[in-house]
Design a protein that fits this description.
- By secondary structure, this protein is mainly α.
- It contains 11 helices and no strands.
- The chain is globular and about 50 Å long.
Length: 198
């Protein structure tokens, strides 16, 4: 009976999702915009201003997106953010040149896309890889990319791959600490569940 309970518990844990189970925005509770994002669940102009503000760090920006949450019905937080990017760069409707975006903009865009539709996270990966290429030392960028890659690995039932992908970021001491260690600890606490599969 004890073995059965353990197996059922493990199955339940594995049914969770790296994108939906890693809640770290609380570590950035000092920002009223992040609290508002949690209350609303939908992006508005004030929250987009926060994401577009170059004085805000990558960690606080991804915390705001994390606070917006996810939905099995899908969200549409990406659309107004893309509209603002087009306005900033003077682009026509339907056009967005990713090469011209900053690393921070690419990070926000990719993470919003993944959270809007976490059943199809692979579309966000090339965008987040561009963010990593533009900000190769950003722990926030590497962390979000690892979470989205882990979501794909979850679909492939590659439990060990999830741990290896994230632990590589945890262990990388060359990265700039633009993501709070407490937020990393929250993510690690969830990802540790997959370590036993390795």
């Amino acid at each position: 009976m004890a073995v059965l309970c353990i197996l059922l518990s493990w199955s339940h844990l594995l049914a969770d999702s790296p994108l939906t189970s890693t809640v770290f925005y609380e570590e950035y509770a000092g920002f009223p915009e992040i609290q508002k994002a949690r209350e609303l669940g939908l992006i508005n102009e004030e929250l987009i201003d926060f994401l577009m503000n170059p004085e805000m760090g990558n960690g606080s920006k991804v915390a705001l997106i994390n606070a917006l949450g996810w939905s099995t019905e899908g969200k549409a937080n990406t659309t107004p953010f893309v509209t603002r990017l087009r306005q900033k760069y003077g682009l026509q409707e339907g056009r967005l040149y990713l090469d011209g975006l900053t690393a921070s903009e690419l990070l926000c865009l990719g993470y919003l896309m993944a959270m809007d539709d976490y059943f199809n996270p692979s579309q966000a990966i090339p965008i987040l890889e561009m963010a990593r290429d533009k900000a190769p030392k950003s722990r926030a960028v590497h962390t979000v990319l690892a979470l989205v890659l882990s979501q794909v690995l979850l679909d492939q039932k590659d439990w060990c791959g999830i741990w290896l992908t994230c632990s590589e970021v945890f262990a990388n001491e060359d990265l700039e600490e633009d993501f709070k260690p407490e937020a990393t600890s929250k993510i690690r606490a969830y990802v540790e569940l997959y370590r036993e599969s390795c």
